[in-house]
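User: quick one - fold this with L-rhamnitol bound?
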Amino acid sequence: MNEQHISQAYALAKQRYADLGVDTDAALATLATIPISVHCWQGDDVVGFEDPNRAVSGGIMATGNYPGKARNADELRQDLDMAYSLIPGTHRLNLHAIYGDSDQPLDRNDWRPENFDRWIDWAIENDHGIDFNPTCFSHPMADSGFTLASLDEGVREFWIEHCKLSREIGGYIGRKLANPCITNLWIPDGYKDTPVDRLRHRAMLKESLDTVFAETIDGNKDAVECKLFGLGSESYVVGSHEFYMGYAVQNQTLLTLDAGHFHPTETIADKLSSMLLYVPEVLLHVSRGVRWDSDHVVTLSDDLQAITQEIIRHDHRRVHIGLDFFDASINRVAAWAIGTRNTVKGLLMALLEPAALLRQYEMNSDFTSRLAILEELKTMPFAAVWDQYCIQQGVPVGMGMLKSVMQYEQDVLNMRN
Ligand code: RNT
Ligand code: ZN
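Assistant: Sure. Structure tokens for the protein plus L-rhamnitol:
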């Protein structure tokens, strides 16, 4: 396919969609305004720059040992640049606290806002907003499996300090970029086996969070992320959905919904419209749960489409889209590109719905027509519109993406070992 074929296919597709009342040019223009927060941690298997030998803990895990992972911030930025060059649109970056730039090794609470200056300069150059996360795992102080909800005051204090520091860094980044930084708090706290007292840790967590969030910080927005279970916390997770939903509603923070953090048949798509009635904004961790794991590369699944439809059908400006997956068994740049491109594709599919018509059918109780169109949409020439978007945005079309990744693997990644 050359560019001429792509634009011919687009012209035909445009007409097909127009027959349904959908303006494909307008859809592409809107799509270009929706940023996705690309997570830095896919680039190095969630290791960060404190200690390269430290194993990831907290019930999360990147399995596999595909060669070429980033070993420092420069390599990570280089890989991210490569990934962004394959993803249409202008996107954000989601950083964890362990990814600062420092000439000597720093411990968890020794990071300072200035350690993120190089990330900020890079973001300004590339027009990336930045989001942030305290790292409440992979550290000796988290070895008990508890952090903010620990019954040990010393442990709790340590993580309260870390979360406060992270919000301070988030605010610093947000102010420097003149673009708010969402600081998302997730902790792994939980029990492998059935606890007797489910209340005490939750009360503790509530108290810790109140201390962490006591001050408002300019440029920073707070989000809290729940989870159902993790490796080693199968029986009880302190920060459950009910816990954080209550907390976010009461304190009007953002609520983070991770697609892999619920019962397998439960979807976060159905939660958005409820939560948007009670919290100001929502952060998504678009991810893919597979059996016990919640962090597989995002594919273009029904689940993803249900999520993007909800985002687009309601108010997409109140839903911030972040990604959260880590796969060390495939090329990491490809993982970013495939997962993010799929998320953008999902958004585009949702933007190509004849929204007004569908609503009208529903309002008139014409469920036959509603079903007919929803099914018709599945075989519309979506790919032609997607290819056109890639051309418009100057990124590779189709398998051209993989070709670029493979070249990069040969030229850059394979040189790292
Ligand atoms: C873990 C949470 C959390 C992490 C990242 C690395 O289950 O989903 O968001 O994946 O903070
Ligand atoms: Zn997550």
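One thing worth noting: The mean pLDDT is 97.
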